[in-house]
From TrEMBL, chain A:
This is Acyl carrier protein. It comes from the Bacteria. It comes from Streptomyces luteolus. SUPFAM superfamilies: ACP-like (SSF47336). Residues 2-83 form the Carrier domain. InterPro entries: ACP-like_sf, PP-bd_ACP.
TrEMBL record, chain B:
It comes from Streptomyces luteolus. SUPFAM superfamilies: Thiolase-like (SSF53901). PANTHER family: 3-OXOACYL-[ACYL-CARRIER-PROTEIN] SYNTHASE, MITOCHONDRIAL, POLYKETIDE SYNTHASE-RELATED. Gene3D superfamilies: 3.40.47.10. GO terms for molecular function: acyltransferase activity. Belongs to the thiolase-like superfamily. Beta-ketoacyl-ACP synthases family. This is Beta-ketoacyl-[acyl-carrier-protein] synthase family protein. The keyword Transferase applies. It comes from the Bacteria.
Automatic annotation (TrEMBL), chain C:
Residues 2-402 form the Ketosynthase family 3 (KS3) domain. This is Ketosynthase chain-length factor. It comes from Streptomyces luteolus. SMART domains: PKS_KS (SM00825). PANTHER family: POLYKETIDE BETA-KETOACYL SYNTHASE 2-RELATED, POLYKETIDE SYNTHASE-RELATED. Keywords: Acyltransferase, Transferase. InterPro entries: Beta-ketoacyl_synthase (IPR000794), Ketoacyl_synth_C (IPR014031), Ketoacyl_synth_N (IPR014030), PKS_Beta-ketoAc_synthase_dom (IPR020841), Thiolase-like (IPR016039). SUPFAM superfamilies: Thiolase-like (SSF53901). PROSITE patterns: KS3_2 (PS52004).
Length: 91, 423, 403
C-alpha cells in the first residue's frame, strides 16, 4: 500500500472541481460501484479529472483508467496502484 | 429553376509538403505523407510530438516585411493563397464594382500561434499574472480578433463587399465556402474570395490536444503517424495550411471564358447538439447534412463518384463517419471510394475543410482518387473502400466532402462538374 | 427567398443591466454602467475603465457540470439564450431539433479561459493545460454550447467580424430561416475584461485613458478621445413571421434589411464603405432613407471614425435629417455583443415610443447630426437603422421594422 492513499473523498473533491456534478446525482452517496457514465461523467470530464489527479499526485494513469465504463472504485484502485509503483520507483 | 449556380474558377493550396496546388496534388496522387517530428519548438515535454508543418517563407511568397510582421502565420497563408487563387482565375477584379466582391475566411483557432508567442513575452514566460502591455506588439489586436484575416484578404485582393471570418471549429473550411456560396446565390455579390486558414502548431494547441488524448503519440515513426480508418489508429496529427477559391456565378464565368473547376452544387451544415468534443457512433446528424447537401445538388447518393472523408484518425471519428456514409448513401457507400487526405497532410483544424475541397476539385480535374496513406490494418467498424496506399485512376465528376468539428458541427458539400449529364 | 423574419425573444446581459427589464430601465433613464475595472487591478495600464456586468453569478443559473468547462462569455451567452427562449415562449425540448439552429458572432472567444491556460502552460508546463482548453476559448464555443444545452441540431454558424459581426450573425440567421429553418437563436455576447485581453485591446490603440466614467467614451463629442470596452450583449430569437404568427408569438419587430461592406485598404484613396452598407440595407428592406425614423449609430468615440459615420448619415439622411443615438455610451463597446444589444434596444424603443439617449456627449458642431442627448426623447418610430463598425474596416447595417 502506498503511504499516501487516494480516497473516495479525494476523488469527490477533484471530480467537483474538474467537472461539477449532475443535479440528479448525490456524489456524497454510495457511488463506489456505479459507473461514471451512470453518474453523468463522460470521457472528457474524466480526462480533466484524470489530468488533475496526475498533476496533484505526480503519477501517470493509463488511457484505460479513464473510461466512462469504470467506477469510482476502479479509478481509486488504479490511482493507488500507480502511487505504489511511483513510490517503489523512488525508493 | 433559375437559381444562380456557383462555380469555382480559381484556387490555391498551401499545405504541408509544399506550397502550391501542383505540389499539393503531387503529394496526394503519389500517396506521400508530410507528417514529421515537430520542428517549430521543442516537443519533448508533449505526449504527441508529430505534426504536418508547412515550409513557408513569407517574403518568398510576395509578402512585404511589414505584412509579415503584422500578420499571424495563418493570416500570411490566407493572403498568399487568396492572391494566388485570384491570379489563377484570370479574373480582373479591378473592373468589377468592389462592393460586389466579398470575402470569407474560415479559421478554427485564428491567430493562436501569435497569441501563444506574445503571451509568453508579455507574461515574461508565465511569471506575471498581470501581463505587461509595454511588451505587446502593435498588431496584437489583430491576433485577439481574427476578423483581421478577412480584412487582410479583402485588402490584398481589393474586395469591399461583405467580408467576414467564419469560425465553426473544424468545419470552418467547408462552412466559410458554404457561406460564400449562399451570398453569390442570393445575389448579394458577384464574386467571393473564400477559403480557410489555420496555423495551430504551437505549444498551447499541442498541450490542449494532449490533455484530451486526441492527437497521436506515435512519434517514433512520424511519417506513418496519421492512420485514418486503420485498425491501429490512435489519434490525429495536427497540421496547418490554407486553401482559397474564387467563386462566381456560372453564366458570368462562362461569359468571360473562365476555366471552371467545379460547381458547388450542394452544401448543408447541421449540429449534433450532443457534446463539445464527443460524437455519437451512429453519425445521424452528419448523415442528415449529407442528405440535405445531395438534395440541394439534386444528385442521388449513388451518383457520387468519390467521398472525401473527414477521416481524422481518431477512434471515434472514423467509426462515426463510416456510419454516416452508410446511413446517407446506403449500399452505394460500399461501392464508392472513400479516402482521407489527412493521412498525408494532417488535420489543420479549420483550414482542412477548404484544403479537402481543393483535393476534391483536383480529383475531378485529374480523374484520380487520392489514397488513404498508412492504411494497412482493417477495423471491422470501418469496412468501406478507403483506397489504401495507392491513388486510383477513375472518372470523377461528383464528389462529396464532409467535416466534423468540436462544438458538434457536421457539414457536407457536394461538388460536381457543371456539365454533368444528370442536372 | 424574402419571407419576413422577426424577433420574438431577447435575452440581455449588459453593464448597465442584467436582464432585459433592468437594461431597458437603465438605458431609457440614461444610467451608465461604465466604471473602474474590478475584475483585475488596472492600475498599471494606460486605460482603466470598462463596462463590467455586476452581480452575475453563473451558479444561480447554470448546472455545475457546465461551469468548469466554460468561460464567463459562454456562461453569459447560455443564460441570455435561456432568457431569450423564455421570453419568446419557446420550450426547445418541444421543438423538432433539426428545425432549430444557432448562429452567433464572436470577437475574442473565451479569452479569459485561454489566459488561464496560457498561464499554466508557461508557468507550470504543458501537462497543466485543461482538457477544456480544446474548445472553451475558441470562437465557436457559444454557438456549440447553446446548441447542446437546448438540443438544437439545425443549421448553425459563427461569424467573426469584430464589432460588425453581431449584425452579420443576425443576417446569417435570417438567411437560414428563409431557407426553411423555423427558429434560430442568434446575436452575440463578448467578454474579455482580463489582463491578457486588456493588453490585446490596448494594442488596438483606441482605448480612452480617462479615469472619469463620464468623460472617457464620448461618441460624436468635440473632445472624443477614445473608447471604453465593455462585456455582454444580447441573444435574440429569430423566426419566420409566418411561423411566429401561427404559434401566436408576440413579435418585437422584423429584421427587414441588411447590408455589409469592408473599407478599402488603408492608403488606397478610395472612400469608406459605410454609406454603401446602409444603402444596401435600405434597398434590401425596400425602404427609402426618408422612411428611417431613428438611427442607432456605431459611435466610435474617435474623431476620425466619428467623422466618417457622421458624414455617411448626413449624406443619406440630410443634415439633422433623422434622430441619432448611441446607447452604448452607457455600456461601453461590447465588441460583437454591441450590435445585437442595439437591435434589442431599438426594438424596445419602438415598442415603448421612446428613444434612449446618448449620455455625456457634448456634440461636435462639425457633425450635422440630430443627436438624442442626455435624456430619452418620445418617438413614433416604426423603422430603425442599426449601424455597427469593426476594427479593420467592417461596416454592417440592419433595418428594423416595428411589429
Amino acid at each position: 500500500m502506498p503511504s499516501i492513499l487516494f480516497t473516495l473523498d479525494d476523488l469527490r473533491r477533484i471530480l467537483l472541481e474538474a467537472a461539477g456534478a449532475e443535479e440528479s446525482v448525490d456524489l456524497e452517496g454510495d457511488i463506489l460501484n456505479t459507473t461514471f457514465a451512470v453518474l453523468g461523467y463522460e470521457s472528457l470530464a474524466l480526462l480533466e479529472t484524470g489530468g488533475r489527479i496526475e498533476r496533484e499526485y505526480g503519477i501517470v494513469l493509463d488511457d484505460d483508467d479513464l473510461s466512462d465504463e469504470i467506477t469510482p472504485g476502479d479509478l481509486i484502485d488504479a490511482v493507488n496502484t500507480q502511487l505504489s509503483a511511483t513510490e517503489a520507483q523512488a525508493a | 429553376m433559375n437559381e444562380r449556380r456557383v462555380v469555382i474558377t480559381g484556387m490555391e493550396v498551401i499545405a504541408p509538403g509544399g506550397v502550391g496546388k501542383e505540389r499539393f496534388w503531387d503529394l496526394l496522387s503519389e500517396g506521400r505523407t508530410a507528417t514529421r517530428g515537430i520542428s517549430f519548438f521543442d516537443p519533448t515535454p508533449f505526449r504527441s510530438r508529430v505534426a504536418a508543418e508547412v515550409d513557408f517563407c513569407p517574403t518568398g511568397h510576395g509578402l512585404t516585411p511589414q505584412e509579415e510582421r503584422r500578420m499571424d502565420r495563418a493570416a500570411q497563408f490566407a493572403v498568399v493563397a487568396a492572391r494566388t487563387a485570384v491570379a489563377d482565375s484570370g479574373i480582373d477584379l479591378g473592373s468589377d464594382d468592389p462592393h460586389r466582391i466579398g470575402v470569407t475566411v474560415g479559421t478554427a483557432v485564428g491567430a493562436t500561434m501569435g497569441l501563444d508567442e506574445e503571451y509568453r513575452v508579455v507574461s515574461d514566460g508565465g511569471r506575471l499574472d498581470l501581463v505587461d502591455h509595454r511588451y505587446a506588439p502593435p498588431h496584437l489586436y489583430n491576433y485577439l480578433v481574427p476578423s483581421s484575416f478577412a480584412a487582410e484578404v479583402a485588402w490584398a485582393v481589393g474586395a469591399e463587399g461583405p467580408s467576414t471570418v467564419v469560425s465553426t471549429g473544424c468545419t470552418s473550411g467547408i462552412d466559410a465556402v458554404g457561406y460564400a456560396v449562399e451570398l453569390v446565390r442570393e445575389g448579394s455579390v458577384d464574386v467571393m474570395i473564400a477559403g480557410a486558414s489555420d496555423a495551430p502548431i504551437s505549444p498551447i494547441t499541442m498541450a490542449c490536444f494532449d490533455a484530451i488524448k486526441a492527437t497521436t503519440p506515435r512519434h517514433d515513426e512520424p511519417e506513418r503517424a496519421s492512420r485514418p480508418f486503420d485498425g491501429t489508429r490512435n489519434g490525429f496529427v495536427l497540421g496547418e495550411g490554407s486553401a482559397f477559391f474564387v467563386l462566381e456565378e456560372l453564366e458570368s464565368a462562362r461569359k468571360r471564358g473562365a476555366h471552371i473547376y467545379a460547381e458547388i452544387a450542394g452544401y448543408a451544415t447541421r449540429s449534433n447538439a450532443y457534446h463539445m468534443t464527443g460524437l455519437r457512433p451512429d453519425g445521424a446528424e452528419m448523415a442528415e447534412a449529407i442528405g440535405l447537401a445531395l438534395d440541394e445538388a439534386r444528385i442521388n447518393g449513388d451518383q457520387i463518384d468519390y467521398v472525401n472523408a473527414h477521416g481524422s484518425g481518431t477512434k471515434q471519428n472514423d467509426r462515426h463517419e463510416t456510419a454516416a456514409f452508410k446511413k446517407s448513401l446506403g449500399t452505394h457507400a460500399y461501392r464508392t471510394p472513400v479516402s482521407s487526405i489527412k493521412s498525408m497532410v494532417g488535420h489543420s483544424l479549420g483550414a482542412i475543410g477548404s484544403i479537402e475541397i481543393a483535393a476534391s476539385v483536383l480529383a475531378m480535374e485529374y480523374d484520380v482518387v487520392p489514397p488513404t496513406a498508412n492504411l494497412h490494418t482493417t477495423d471491422p467498424e470501418c469496412d468501406l473502400d478507403y483506397v489504401p496506399i495507392v491513388a486510383r485512376d477513375q472518372l470523377v465528376d461528383t464528389v462529396l466532402t464532409v467535416g466534423s468539428g468540436f462544438g458538434g458541427f457536421q457539414s457536407a458539400m457536394v461538388l460536381a462538374s457543371p456539365d454533368r449529364s444528370f442536372v | 427567398m424574402t419571407a419576413p423574419v422577426v424577433v420574438t425573444g431577447m435575452g440581455v446581459a449588459a453593464p448597465n443591466g442584467l436582464g432585459t427589464a433592468d437594461y431597458w430601465a437603465a438605458t431609457r433613464g440614461g444610467k451608465s454602467g461604465i466604471g473602474r475595472i474590478t475584475r483585475f487591478d488596472p492600475t498599471g495600464y494606460p486605460a482603466r475603465l470598462a463596462g463590467e456586468i455586476p452581480g452575475f453569478d453563473a451558479q444561480e443559473h447554470l448546472p455545475s457540470r457546465l461551469l468548469p468547462q466554460t468561460d464567463r462569455v459562454t456562461r453569459l451567452a447560455l443564460v441570455a439564450a435561456d432568457w431569450a427562449l423564455a421570453d419568446a415562449g419557446v420550450d426547445p425540448s418541444q421543438g423538432d431539433p433539426l428545425d432549430m439552429g444557432v448562429v452567433t458572432a464572436s470577437a475574442a472567444g473565451g479569452f479569459e479561459f485561454g489566459e488561464g491556460e496560457l498561464r499554466r502552460l508557461w508557468s507550470k508546463g504543458s501537462q497543466f493545460v485543461s482538457a477544456y482548453q480544446s474548445f472553451a476559448w475558441f470562437y465557436a464555443v457559444n454557438t456549440g454550447q447553446i446548441s447542446i444545452r437546448n438540443g438544437m441540431k439545425g443549421p448553425s454558424g459563427v461569424v467573426v467580424s469584430d464589432q460588425a459581426g453581431g449584425l452579420d450573425a443576425l443576417a446569417q440567421a435570417r438567411r437560414q430561416i428563409r431557407k426553411g429553418t423555423s427558429l434560430v437563436v442568434s446575436g452575440a455576447v463578448d467578454a474579455s475584461i482580463c489582463s491578457w485581453g486588456w493588453v490585446a485591446q490596448l494594442a488596438g490603440d483606441r482605448l480612452s485613458s480617462s479615469d472619469e466614467p463620464t468623460r472617457a467614451y464620448l461618441p460624436f463629442d468635440r473632445e472624443a478621445t477614445g473608447q471604453v470596452p465593455g462585456e455582454g450583449g444580447a441573444i435574440l430569437i429569430l423566426e419566420s413571421a409566418e411561423g411566429a404568427r401561427a404559434r401566436g408569438a408576440e413579435v418585437y419587430g422584423e429584421i427587414a434589411g441588411y447590408g455589409a461592406t469592408i473599407d478599402p485598404a488603408p492608403g488606397s484613396g478610395r472612400p469608406p464603405g459605410l454609406a454603401k452598407a446602409v444603402a444596401t440595407a435600405l434597398g434590401d428592406a425596400g425602404v427609402d432613407a426618408a422612411d428611417i425614423d431613428v438611427v442607432f449609430a456605431d459611435g466610435a468615440g474617435i474623431p476620425e471614425l466619428d467623422r466618417v459615420e457622421a458624414e455617411a448619415i448626413t449624406e443619406l439622411f440630410g443634415p439633422r435629417g433623422v434622430p441619432v443615438t448611441v446607447p452604448k455610451s452607457m455600456t461601453g463597446r461590447l465588441y460583437s455583443g454591441a450590435a445585437p444589444l442595439d437591435v434589442a434596444c431599438a426594438l424596445l424603443a419602438m415598442r415603448d415610443g421612446v428613444i434612449p439617449p446618448t449620455v455625456h456627449t457634448d456634440p461636435c458642431p462639425d457633425y450635422d447630426l440630430d443627436l438624442v442627448l442626455h435624456q430619452a426623447r418620445p418617438t413614433q418610430a416604426r423603422t430603425a437603422l442599426v449601424l455597427a463598425r469593426g476594427y479593420g474596416g467592417f461596416n454592417s447595417a440592419v433595418v428594423l421594422r416595428a411589429a
